[in-house]
Structures are given as structure tokens and as C-alpha cells.
Amino acid sequence: MKVVVFLPAHNEEEAIGEVIRRIPRQIQPNINVYVLVIDDGSTDRTVHVAKQAGADVIYRHERNRGLGAAVRTGLQQCVELDADIGVMIDADNEYPPEQIPDLIMPILRGEADYTMGSRFLGTIHGMKWHRRIGNYMFTWLQCMLLKTWIYDGQSGMRAFSREAMEEAEIIHDYNYAQVLTLNLVRKGFRLKEVPIVYQVRTTGQSFIKFTAYLKHVLPAIVKEMCRPVKRRHMRSIQQR
């Protein structure tokens, strides 16, 4: 079985090396783990640091296209690399690579097609109050639209079955967090959240600016919910 862990990255030279070095390569004897970096037009030493840290594959956007575009490319490249499971983790060292085995376990057991590392089911260190409120608001909106309970709809640590990777659609380049979950759950893919330990970044800067985030994300949510989607017939991973 092949697991590809991909990191969308833009100017993350200070953090990406440690994230890559912490990714477990020995999960189970029958699982091979590969690391893929999606460099979204970095102008610093992100690519050099990622190679030095042991990244197996680097895919580059020649210009900065946005986090949504980088995650879309990551999912496509996982399929190209013939991954059975794809794992996305932010390159800013806020999420715990050591918990990747926990994240993929529901997919391996056939219990879920799409998992998210949940900060609010786990432990959070250093998140400021305005970010907590923003997370609660966007998560609540997803709960209302999907009529299901979600604890953390903005997580930067997720895993996908092969079928979820093939069918996932991200309709805007700016971000992926909400529209990806709305798209997959509306298509009938099974979502499960896994508690994780989260630490707010200590290096670099977040790209999120509240006004710009609202301007881009809210219209994208409306657009996604107005699109017809076809519920898919899914195979279990054991059938591959």
C-alpha cells in the first residue's frame, strides 16, 4: 500500500524541514510512505530546505496561485503517483506529523473515506480568541449546510481515500477548507474527525487576512452549494 503525504507550501523555509523530518516513514510493514511538496511559487529557500529534509517529490507552481490551487494540485499528484491514501498537512509546523498514523487508521479500517485532524476534539496551544471565533463560525456554517456535526471544519491536516482524491473538487484557488468538505460530503463520502494536538506556528506568517478571507470564501461556499453534485458509488479500499 502506498501513502503519499503532501505539503502545500509557500515561503515556508523556516518550518517545512522540521515537518518533513517528523513524518513517520514506518507506519506498518505493508505501507510505503512518500513525501510530496507542492511549492506554490515560493521566493525563498522552501524547495532547497524540503529536498535537504528528505522530500521524495517536489512539484512546483511557477507563480503563487493560492492554497486552494496548491491542495488541488496535491490531490491530483497523489493520484498520478498511484497513492492508495493521500495525506495533506500544512507546512507551517502547526499540525503533528506524528499523528498521521491516527489520521489514516479510519480509512485503513474502512470506516471513513475522508478524515480531518480535529483541534477542537484534541488539544490546542496558542490559538488567539479571534481565530477561535472564526473557526467556530465557519464550522457552524458547514454543520448547518451539511446537516451533520463537525467539530473543526478548517483543519490543515486531512487524509483521503483513493476514491475521495479522484472525486474531490476545489472550486476556487484561494482556499480549500470549507468547499472541499462540502463537496466530498455532498457526494456521499464518509467523514470522520480524529483528535490531534495543535500548536500555533512560531515562525513565518499566516496568509489569512480576515477581510480577504471572507471576500473569497463566502462566495465560494455559496457557489459550491448551488452546484449539482452526483453521489458516487464507492469501493472500499480493501477492494483495490
From TrEMBL:
This is Glycosyltransferase family 2 protein. Residues 5-167 form the Glycosyltransferase 2-like domain. Gene3D superfamilies: Spore Coat Polysaccharide Biosynthesis Protein SpsA, Chain A (3.90.550.10). InterPro entries: Glyco_trans_2-like, Glycosyltransferase_2, Nucleotide-diphossugar_trans. Coiled coil: none annotated. Pfam families: Glycos_transf_2 (PF00535).
